[in-house]
Fold this sequence. Notes:
heterodimer, A: alpha/beta, 6-stranded mixed sheet, 37% helix, B: alpha/beta, 4-stranded antiparallel sheet, 11 helices, globular
Amino acid sequence: MALISFENFSFCYSATAVPALQNLDLQIERKETVVVSGLSGSGKSTLCLAAADLLGSFPAAAATGRLHRQSDPSGGGPRTAIVMQNFYAQISYLRTTVFEEVAFGCENLGMEREEIIRRAGEAMTATRISHLADRNPLELSGGEKQKVVLASALAQRPEILILDEPLSQLDPESVHYLSEVLAHLRGKMSIIIAENDPYLTLSVADRIIILADGTKIADGKLEEILSEEAETHIDLPAWTKCVQRARRHGIIRDSTVKESYILNYKQALETLMSLK
Amino acid sequence: MRIEFQQVTHSFGSTNALESISCRLASGRTTLLVGHNGSGKSTFLKLMNGILKPSSGRIWLGEVMTSEYRLSQIASMCALSFQNPDDQIFASNVEKEIRFGISNTGRDGSLFLPLVETLHLKDALSQNPFEMNYAMRRLVSIAGTAAMNTPIIAFDEPTAGLSMREKNYFGQLVSLLKELGKTIVIVTHDLDFMLQWADDLLMLSRGQIQYCGSRDAFFGSARARPVIRNCGLRIPNYLRLSRALGTAQPCFSASELVDGLIGKKGEPAPP
Lengths: 276, 271
């Protein structure tokens, strides 16, 4: 059975008239990495909150269908960590150094002291914030705070890691590095990432889900689900966009290239080269 | 309106966020302020609009030295849209939020309608911003800032967390503000998207300036590669492609690259 399954699931926040998720059917397997993309307002963040079993804290006007998170033999739900879109709200305000902040989640899980220290250290290395260990988390820049919250989630080694736009405030070098960290975690836990960055999707996703107005409109590997319709909902790599633009000018003659989207840099470059 | 920093240092406790930096941003130009996380970008913006006062050094906006004026006086020269829109938004509906700065300072509100149209907020004017999704809140905070119609307008990571649709709205807003002759400063990590609107670059690393000057001169120089690495950036993808393809000019967007490549520059883009 899937680790998380949504069956005909709909959710409407009490403050709004339009449902955030509508008739969603979705299975997320154990140790699978899924990227959730789609335009702003399409339901990505609500899906993340639902997968983390946090929707109960919102007053709902209506919630129908079924959301099931598979329990472990002890009866508890799967251990989950989430980095929310508004990560500023996740800083504890209870710890005065970055190291303590990163360790805080593990402390609450009742781990051994040595284990906590080791994990916090590893998580800070993975997010490249070791040099900030003694700083006050409240005095950091926005991007640095985002890394601290990310490190706190990683340190807990959850069964389900949920990241809502985890790269939004990071510099490109950090984005590159974190993509590698996530690629390394792939297959070790279930990872759900709400993100529109096509490069991240290409490097870590087992599959991509596209949401539009709270409904799933595509589900599969990126190269399989791309279409003119899908293209209006997600971003594509720069080179793919160039080939698509050339195609719209009607100047790509090669019929083998005509139908499919070129996601590979080298192949896109060759195609563009032939236009010169 | 020109912006000038003269040997400006700013410290938070024992940490120097900016260290003795000097630079001049010319009037009517659009500058991208870039650098790694914690390099001092947001501090630069807050010093520029007077929220922070420098620990030492001088900051000029036009002929005005910011330390001699109150924040409320500087607000009529320089408007800043914050990194976190939730730090900025407080009104009970979108129209009130966007109009607040205008009505509060008695400034000319002529930008209200064009802004609301450019950012596609027309149907949302009566909504409560706190009940809107993140991207919409971001657009509302951007609109509220630009509506002030100040000579200098600054944006802190305006496209973070936006999908392509809203990013394009923001791009159109920058075009509009450029036409109006505004001096624009944008903090961004999204070089692939933003470079096409930039005249100049201001690049920071560890609180110090690595480059300040024209975009085209920068990417044409041998210094580009090491400075980019120092600032936590990567070579922009369109530039990488245009170099690999040997285009005559460096390109910063798909339209520049492809339309240039096939000699259709200047023609309207296909849908």
